[in-house]
């Protein structure tokens, strides 16, 4: 921790400085815009950009992560607050801080208890579906501010500013990189300058609005209190309960969003992201956000990528950004107050449209239809049920596809390849079998999700043998592919053993892996109940049961 | 379907008849008691015992399942209704029917779409924890009716009836079986008669209350409308939304409770339970319950076991029970109206105390601490957060233990056993390795829950080799234990390939299973990106890369 600070090299400073400046210029409009998405006063977005990145630097493990306001978490904050209070009210600011507090504490404690594995609750296609759905919801919510009113009653001056800002931003995105490269700039520099187009567009829009359209009643950002946020935490005792579930869901999405941003950049830099350190960093950043009158924050994929591309070497870049935001708040902020909301809506729309991702859908559609189905259902869930419901649905769908895939494990009836010690599937190879012995290889872990299928399959096999007139006196389960038997799996084995015993069939186990065996030895199944034996190898079981059979004959 | 009816044999009738009578005698007090637990008029519990078992008989797959009111689903119904209306109100009856409608439709459609695998969302320890927690909640809720008032202000006549009923029931449970057997009855008969103790106790308590304590104001069941329920469905349009989530959770628990009851009995009878047929049967039964002015129903473990023990052969037993309940409703029901509530509370308490299960906790504690932890956390969740929250928590904990266990798969660095074609873990065997080749066997499926760990592990291995001064030019992934690569896994492999290529390391795959290969061939990873080769066997990879190395040298 903080090794980057004690080992700081002077030559890193140039990169950190340029990245810090560029990210600060991105953060200014983004911070205010995402505060609006969260239904909060614009200045809170700037507050969310000061302490959180500094505190993240102390605990997090990514060198180039830009922590601050982010589209999805702001949308989730806004949705949760809308159910409890009016947007922009004093209470909404209190509740936003309280959400950041709960989310931050949850993340921090998850880091302490090393719960980073929980990121594995969401598959990548489902995450992509959630992001796309959230981007569509945010875009839908910005159409009214963009046009200055609902579609049936747009406000022409606002619509002109909004739509021309949107057009300018779109043109910049499409052509500016190419234009700048034609002027001889490097690809990286051209790309970075393009990211600053929103600031430029907003400055022009503000100038136009301030000069020409002052009487046209275009809505503007309004007064921004000058100076630093007050370091204080106001809480609303009656709102702990209604905020709990939304805050937990936000904590989950904070971790997942940040994790995917951090990981892709760390891979490029040859560094490692330690999930549990990330949890600490994000938790501390959100606690800091709660203290500074702001709202839930996370690592932003788009800003972090710019930070990396602009040459950031260490979290010093983030600290520099934060200092610049502080400077902006200390100089008179009148110019910010004149920023027209339609132009800000245009920057939001163009930013989140970039989050819409059809590549993953195409890949999943080709590769695995159930993943593609989960992705589409998550988009539909976010749009039709809501954002929080979308997160829950996404988790359910990720796990449902997992449970579904693992619910019917492959089980092979095996026999011995003549003249060898190898055992193979009887359906694919010419193998020897013993007359009254059924040998099965279970190609999966035995856990609560598939024990019914395994029990069923075994019963069917026994019935099929009986129907063919084959007696069965021994069932041998080959456990070479089983690395886990949970308690439900143990119960299933116990019941299989009991039911076979009632039919006078002995159950044997072979090739049980070390850790699985250690555990089984603590159960009554092995110590008392098992009707047959535990063999070390399948070959040994085959030999022993074969000899037994020939003696009986 | 209905094969049991077309093939019905006369000799089955005796068993079905005796089981039908005994189960009806159990259903009478249970039906009213569980209606009270659900916060509904007692008669609705009798309505829930008529049509649902008959309709289940048409669709379900179990021969001996007793479908009707059950403790856990009644508790869940009561909890959901309590948030919306006063217990026993006219609206509560409407909403209970609406819950049964939503739950029934969900179950039926889940059956049509073959979603029976969803039972695999809850592990057995967690289910045990949920049942224990629910039993404690129900017991807690019955203490006030048992004593005729809160603990600080008990109503002595009520408490006398309640506590003496409880004592009588407890004594019957402890000693009646033994007593009856001493009188020469068979174990089965003694056991069955013991199950009728509640009816006997209630009859005595009713007589005592009616004769001696009429002036003592002991609360009684009250007027039971005579005759059949009206077949009609009143709905409340504004309550669809608040009922949705509770009804979905109840549907899930209906399926799980019924499934475990049906499965253990089917195993004893050598029959099979088809999950998707069970879903249809339970769905239809709940739709029928909605139509008959009742509430969500499911298969009861305790009644089904009695039904089986009393000799039930087919669902005809359930139909006979239903007819007997109809008879009871057609004769004058004055005697039922005098049934004292404290005695009914005693039967509830004794019934649900039997659901408290510490055996599973003990087994899980010995065998797998994480399962035991999930069980305890689920009990705590039901008690502290609530019943619905307990179900959700249980699902989350089941899946969390699964994700946690699979999140760090075993990955072995392997080498060739000299003079053979076998490859084994370098740490456990003396094996040959190639100087610039890292061979890994992944002992798990590659899915969203473990891809980060796999990527991390590989990076660490490469760093460790670099630290020892070993160059790596080839990484070979041995996929013999991988039966599944989901879309997230495919992305991880693609990123591993890209990151290795950036370090000038080639990625090769060997022993990819057929179905996994079919899928990979549809991806760009195999068709275009893979830097290395796909070998059929590890031995072939070893030979080919070994030759390549010696040529290079």
**Percent helix range of chain A:** 55-70%
The secondary-structure class of chain A comes to: mainly alpha
* Beta-strand content of chain A: 5-15%
Describe the strand arrangement of the main beta sheet of chain A, using strand numbers: 4-3-5-6-7-8
- Residue runs with pLDDT of under 50 for 5 or more positions of chain A: none
- What is the CA–CA distance across the termini of chain A? 72 Å
InterPro entries (chains A, B): SLC26A/SulP_dom, SLC26A/SulP_fam, STAS_dom, STAS_dom_sf
Organism (chains A, B): Candidatus Accumulibacter aalborgensis
Protein name (chains A, B): Sulfate transporter
Subcellular location (chains A, B): Membrane
Report on this structure.
The structure is a homodimer of 553-residue chains. With 553 residues, the first copy, chain A, is mainly alpha-helical. Chain A has two domains: 10-142 and 156-221 and 239-403, no CATH class; 411-552, 2-Layer Sandwich (Transcription Regulator spoIIAA), CATH 3.30.750.24. Helices cover 63% and strands 6% of the residues of chain A. Chain A has 24 helices and eight strands. Chain A has helices at 3-6, 13-37, 43-47, 51-59, 71-82, 90-112, 124-147, 156-182, 187-195, 197-211, 240-269, 275-291, 301-309, 316-330, 334-337, 341-353, 359-367, 369-384, 387-406, 451-467, 487-502, 514-520, 524-529, 538-552; strands spanning 67-68, 298-299, 411-416, 423-425, 437-442, 474-478, 506-510, 534-535. In chain A, strands 4-3-5-6-7-8 form a six-stranded mixed sheet. The first copy, chain A, has a two-stranded antiparallel ribbon with strand order 1-2. In chain A, a hairpin with a 6-residue loop joins β3 and β4. In chain A, α7 packs antiparallel against α16 (341-353), α8 (156-182) runs antiparallel to α10 (197-211) and α18 (369-384) packs antiparallel against α19 (387-406). The radius of gyration of chain A is 31 Å and the shape is elongated. The termini of chain A are far apart. The mean pLDDT of chain A is 88. The interface between A and B is large, with 57 and 57 residues.
